[in-house]
């Protein structure tokens, strides 16, 4: 069930006064919901067909800057409009806000109404269409890990992001007592999202002080990405409503474990799991072997889409459950790719590289493209690794910095063929800009280290 409201449901709820506000949102390059709050009467009368936004929204950064170097828009071209076209299949209640519904929009060219190629939803749809042409459907689940802090966002910002207090006093991995203490936030998150039409499975404490995980049932890839974006947004809003802060920064402190977003993936044909072969090793079909071989071979090319910021790369540290190597293993949490559900119809691959800051549309699209390439080229899967993969000197490393991942993205012939030069040039510029912004800043670390002693 992608949404939980039909357009007719919405109209009758607007008429009887239950809904007065409709959020029309699209997902930006950073994975955020951006858009407008409509008076519901205006939405059901006219704006359900389309609305507009400035085209800089798909060429900006977390600070809403206007970087140069994007072919799609600029000061020179006058920063015109895009069309936001509501996808009414995503219409849903927003139970944590009074009288409010939400719809996700596709972003279209203002003049031609063609999909904007670098918009994240269009990028994922393009790879889903390629997979469908091969006769398969992808089902995915993205785990959402994050930290909860005692203070509010405003208090944290006013204190200069100092003295952050995680909401718990100890590592709360699978901890029922500690997570009971957090039910004031986590229970509304689960229940409001469920009431919004998201198939919530569970939440649990994660392997660090104040760290949480939310799991949503695996779904067709586009629904999965929609769910992820809505859930991430809701987690922040619900934490804010409770006077607390939720953070998806992958590594908020160098001595703490980071937050990830593992992506579980399987392909299906005619409603049956195409990754399952009861007679094969691990129950893994030949198709699954090709798909995983593509994922592994091209992981350095698409790492940027799993780790898009400077901070993302601080997570890839030995002995933290975050991977450092692009190898696969059976139910082994030290490898980049973990085979789960061995020997069952639920056999699937979990990519463990992505951080909690990934954009789910871009991450899933890039991995689908790699899997498709593996299938098309009939790539063979290298043998599984065993033991502590952190210590496997022969295994290929994940790019260790944003600079390195930008280079592999820029030079990826495979991604250019799968997604198009325009898209790859656009995201390469996005990656370069992030690096340029960081490079010009003098950090606290440099000052403390060198001020007196250098
Ligand atoms: P973990 O031990 O990593 O928490 P879980 O058993 O909780 O593993 O499953 C993690 C995620 O995998 C869940 O969100 C679940 O919906 C998803 N999942 C289960 N089966 C499949 C499948 N066949 N394809 C893709 N995802 C799946």
Automatic annotation (TrEMBL):
Protein's GO biological process: biogenic amine catabolic process; biogenic amine metabolic process; glutamine biosynthetic process
Lineage top rank: taxon: Bacteria
Cofactor(s) demanded: Mg(2+)
Keyword Cell membrane on entry: no
Keywords: ATP-binding, Ligase, Nitrogen fixation, Nucleotide-binding
Residue span(s) of domain GS beta-grasp: 17-112
SUPFAM superfamilies in alphabetical order: Glutamine synthetase, N-terminal domain (SSF54368), Glutamine synthetase/guanido kinase (SSF55931)
Keyword Transmembrane helix: no
Domain (GS catalytic) ranges: 120-454
Function: Catalyzes the ATP-dependent biosynthesis of glutamine from glutamate and ammonia.
Family affiliation: Belongs to the glutamine synthetase family.
Annotated protein name in UniProt: Glutamine synthetase
């Amino acid at each position: 069930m992608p949404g939980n409201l039909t357009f007719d449901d919405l109209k009758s709820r607007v008429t009887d006064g239950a809904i007065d506000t409709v959020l029309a949102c699209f997902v930006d390059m950073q994975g955020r919901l951006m858009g407008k709050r409509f008076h519901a009467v205006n939405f059901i009368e006219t704006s359900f067909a389309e609305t507009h936004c400035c085209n800089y929204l798909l060429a900006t950064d977390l600070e809403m800057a206007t970087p140069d170097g994007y072919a799609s828009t600029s000061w020179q071209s006058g920063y015109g409009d895009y069309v936001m076209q509501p996808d009414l299949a995503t219409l849903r209640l927003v139970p944590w806000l009074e009288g409010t519904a939400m719809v996700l929009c596709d972003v279209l060219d203002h003049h031609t109404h063609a999909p904007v190629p670098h918009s994240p939803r269009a990028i994922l749809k393009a790879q889903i269409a390629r997979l469908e042409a091969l006769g398969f459907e992808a089902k995915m689940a993205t785990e959402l890990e994050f930290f909860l802090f005692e203070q509010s966002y405003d208090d944290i910002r006013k204190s200069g992001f100092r003295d952050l207090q995680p909401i718990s006093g100890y590592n709360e991995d699978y901890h029922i007592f500690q997570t009971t203490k957090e039910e004031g936030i986590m229970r509304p998150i689960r229940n409001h999202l469920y009431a919004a039409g998201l198939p919530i499975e569970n939440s649990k404490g994660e392997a660090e002080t104040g760290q949480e995980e939310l799991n949503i049932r695996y779904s067709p890839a586009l629904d999965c990405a929609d769910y992820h974006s809505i859930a991430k947004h809701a987690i922040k809003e619900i934490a804010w409503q409770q006077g607390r802060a939720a953070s998806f920064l992958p590594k908020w402190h160098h001595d703490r474990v980071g937050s990830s977003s593992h992506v579980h993936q399987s392909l299906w044909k005619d409603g049956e799991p195409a990754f399952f072969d009861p007679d094969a090793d691990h129950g893994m079909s030949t198709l699954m072997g090709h798909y995983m071989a593509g994922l592994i071979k091209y992981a350095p090319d698409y790492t940027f889409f799993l780790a898009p910021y400077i901070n993302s790369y601080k997570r890839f540290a030995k002995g933290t459950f975050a991977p450092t190597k692009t190898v696969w293993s059976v139910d082994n949490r030290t490898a980049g790719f973990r085979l789960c559900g061995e020997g069952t119809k639920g056999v699937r691959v979990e990519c463990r590289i992505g951080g909690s800051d990934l954009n789910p549309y871009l991450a899933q699209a890039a991995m689908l493209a790699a899997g498709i390439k593996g299938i098309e080229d009939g790539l063979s899967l290298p043998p599984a690794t065993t033991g502590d993969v952190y210590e496997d000197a022969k295994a290929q490393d994940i790019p260790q910095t944003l600079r390195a991942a930008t280079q592999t993205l820029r030079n990826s012939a495979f991604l250019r063929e799968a997604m198009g030069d325009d898209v790859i040039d656009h995201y390469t510029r996005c990656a370069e800009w992030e690096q340029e912004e960081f490079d010009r800043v003098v950090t606290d670390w440099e000052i403390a280290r060198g001020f007196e002693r250098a």
